[in-house]
């Protein structure tokens, strides 16, 4: 039997009105605009776009404002919004080799062609609070150098030309899409990468860290990390040719991992891959490590039972909207469920008591 | 960098251009020509893809917002606008410019809208590249010891 309970409407309305007031905060402090969030909370905006799986900085900034800075709530809002959009089609795969790089570093080759370009990074800062930011002040314009202008080649290309790294099989197959069909296991690499690209950063960070600590260790070097903008091209049926429909910023991480080899193949480095919307390098590195760990089977490695090797476990738990939906639903009314548990436990206790009295006599 | 001599080129430029710059330059161009809207501006999503290991098999990375619009001028010329984001006016303007670029107003449009827009965007891109170049590490080696 299902018994509907009514009477919460007034309380809910008032709770939401208070939420709006609390969101606004102290009215003597100026209200933040969506543009301010977009421009000054850029990395939060990037995370919401990446995990919300929708590239639109204005929408992400609006979601952060609405969610009072709760990024998972903001991601939830973006995911809900994207389901309302008609799908115009699929773009051609982006060419990260043609990226206009803001940042491009390699931890494996010091003198890599194109150089080590640090970009706007937190690396090498002292992590001391900067109280100057609490005061108003203009920021001086960043220094300018002499841009080379040519696209920067991928580091793995050098290893590839020597045959030292496992090549990526070429393909133009249309990938399966998690947002269109339920996840089916076993999941191919394309499906795994889609799932990781929108996965929770914290979950991936923990899993990636676990591989470094020895749970499916695969000894990753960051062969290359690059952040910058790439054009997105799509075939337009009305026109009969492809046009650029926009430009997005992405972070790409390619790891170079320990060897594999067999009787027929000489030892080769293997690779992990991370690609994420926005400037999101922690997530991209974590993604590459977890991608590499999940490739144990195709690379002929042993399954040591590590969490990061367990594709079903990773893919079933890495989505923070699925996770938070199920986790948080247990705070909603379960009065009837619990009533039955209460009755059951009372009955069991009464039986136990009666049995005890019988034993005593 | 931005080639506005081909249809692909100008459509790509209009797709990526900042909405406020497009509307500003369009307003300066003169009155909006008589036209019919074949497809009203529509906001949708396009699935962006990457390749495993940058060069391997494609995978779905996530979607981006795109707005499209189709117009036809009084002479029957059809123009399409596909622009990044959710600005309907931007998509409609892009469609009108695309249509007019196929007429004899081509050179005016190039001069008043497309070339200035391309120059501004090229400028922004160069500035960013210059800032990145300034953060390039110049390694040097310290030689220590006697031999």
Automatic annotation (TrEMBL), chain A:
Keywords: Lyase. One of its GO terms (biological process) is organic phosphonate metabolic process. One of its GO terms (molecular function) is lyase activity. InterPro entries: PhnI (IPR008773). It holds the Pfam family PhnI. This is Carbon-phosphorus lyase complex subunit PhnI. It comes from Meridianimarinicoccus aquatilis.
TrEMBL record, chain B:
One of its GO terms (biological process) is organic phosphonate metabolic process. GO terms for molecular function: lyase activity. The keyword Lyase applies. It comes from Meridianimarinicoccus aquatilis. This is Phosphonate C-P lyase system protein PhnG. InterPro entries: Phosphonate_metab_PhnG. Keywords: Lyase. It holds the Pfam family PhnG. The lineage of its organism: Bacteria, Pseudomonadati, Pseudomonadota, Alphaproteobacteria, Rhodobacterales. The keyword Nucleotide-binding does not apply.
């Amino acid at each position: 039997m299902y018994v509907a309970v009514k009477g919460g409407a007034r309380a809910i309305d008032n709770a939401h009105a208070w939420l709006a007031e609390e969101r606004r905060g102290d009215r003597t402090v100026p209200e933040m605009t969506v543009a301010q969030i977009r421009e000054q909370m850029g990395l939060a905006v990037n995370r919401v776009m990446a995990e919300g799986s929708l590239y639109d900085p204005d929408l992400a900034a609006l979601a952060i404002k609405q969610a009072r800075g709760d990024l998972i709530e903001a991601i939830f809002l973006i995911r809900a919004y994207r389901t309302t959009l008609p799908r115009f089609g699929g773009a051609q795969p982006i060419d990260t080799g043609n990226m206009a790089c803001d940042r491009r570093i390699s931890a494996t080759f010091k003198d890599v062609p194109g150089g080590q370009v640090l970009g706007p990074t937190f690396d090498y800062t002292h992590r001391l609070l900067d109280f100057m930011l609490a005061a108003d002040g203009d920021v001086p314009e960043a220094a300018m150098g002499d841009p080379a202008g040519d696209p920067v080649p991928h580091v793995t290309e050098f290893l590839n030309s020597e045959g030292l790294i496992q090549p990526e099989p070429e393909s133009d197959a249309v990938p399966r899409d998690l947002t269109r069909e339920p996840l089916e296991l076993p999941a191919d690499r394309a499906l795994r990468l889609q799932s990781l690209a929108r996965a929770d950063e914290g979950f991936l960070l923990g899993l990636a860290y676990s591989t470094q600590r020895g749970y499916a260790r695969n000894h990753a070097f960051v062969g290359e990390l690059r952040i910058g903008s790439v054009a997105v091209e799509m075939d337009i049926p009305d026109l009969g040719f492809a046009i650029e429909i926009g430009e997005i910023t992405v972070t790409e991480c390619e790891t170079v991992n320990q060897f594999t080899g067999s009787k027929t193949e000489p030892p080769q480095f293997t690779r992990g891959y991370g690609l994420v919307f926005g400037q999101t390098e922690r997530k991209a590195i974590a993604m590459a490590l977890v991608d590499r760990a999940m490739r144990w089977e195709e690379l002929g490695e042993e399954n040591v039972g590590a969490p990061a090797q367990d594709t079903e476990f990773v893919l079933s738990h890495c989505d923070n909207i699925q996770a938070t939906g199920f986790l948080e639903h247990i705070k909603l009314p379960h009065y009837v469920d619990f009533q039955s548990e209460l009755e059951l436990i009372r009955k069991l206790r009464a039986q136990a008591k009666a049995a005890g009295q019988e034993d005593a006599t | 960098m931005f080639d506005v001599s081909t249809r692909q080129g100008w459509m790509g430029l209009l797709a990526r251009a900042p909405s406020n710059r497009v509307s500003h330059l369009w307003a300066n161009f003169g009155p909006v020509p008589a036209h019919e809207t074949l497809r009203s501006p529509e906001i949708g999503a396009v699935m962006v893809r990457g390749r495993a290991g940058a060069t391997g098999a494609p995978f779905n990375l996530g979607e981006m917002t795109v707005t499209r619009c189709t117009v036809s001028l009084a002479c029957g010329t059809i123009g399409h606008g596909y622009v990044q984001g959710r600005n309907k006016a931007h998509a409609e303007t892009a469609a009108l410019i695309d249509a007019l670029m196929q007429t004899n107003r081509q050179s005016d449009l190039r001069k008043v809208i497309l070339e200035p827009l391309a120059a501004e965007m090229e400028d922004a891109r160069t500035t960013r590249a210059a800032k990145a170049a300034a953060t390039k590490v110049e390694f040097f080696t310290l030689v220590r010891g006697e031999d």
